[in-house]
């Protein structure tokens, strides 16, 4: 069964080398208690087990222009992993 009627959400990001990349947004969400915003996205790459590789970034809007930052706090990362687990159950 195909995902008919589901529109892909594409965003442009600046890669580490300064080039622009198009990525597909899987999920954007915010933790209400911390007001931290996250985005889960993919470049539609596959690993050796044919699983799609996904990326998670914290969205920093403090400078006006959104920036994607890594998740380096362990407690924060565990909460994000819980969201990823829930997402994988619904697929």
Provide structural commentary.
This protein has one domain (26-90). Helices cover 19% and strands 45% of the residues. The protein has one helix spanning 74-90; strands spanning 9-14, 20-31, 36-46, 52-60, 67-69. It has a five-stranded antiparallel beta sheet, with no helix packed on it. It is globular. The two termini are 13 Å apart.
Short description:
The protein has 91 residues and is of the alpha+beta class. It has one helix and five strands.
Strand order of the largest sheet: 1-2-3-4-5
The tally of strands reads 5
Order of helices and strands: EEEEEH
Distance linking N and C termini:
13 Å
Radius of gyration, whole Å:
14 Å
Keywords for this entry:
alpha+beta; globular; 5-stranded antiparallel β-sheet; 91 residues
What does the secondary structure layout of this molecule look like, with pairings?
Layout (H helix, E strand, L loop, with lengths): L8 E6 L5 E12 L4 E11 L5 E9 L6 E3 L4 H17 L1
Antiparallel strand pairs: 1-2, 2-3, 3-4, 4-5
């Amino acid at each position: 069964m195909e995902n008919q009627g589901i529109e892909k959400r594409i965003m442009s990001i600046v890669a580490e080398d300064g080039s622009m990349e198009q990525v597909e947004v899987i999920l954007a969400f915010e933790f209400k208690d911390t007001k931290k915003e996250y985005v889960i996205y993919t470049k539609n790459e596959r690993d050796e087990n044919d699983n799609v590789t996904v990326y998670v970034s914290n969205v920093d809007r403090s400078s006006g222009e959104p920036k994607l930052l890594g998740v380096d706090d362990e407690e924060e990362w565990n909460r994000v992993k819980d969201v990823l687990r829930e997402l994988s159950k619904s697929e």
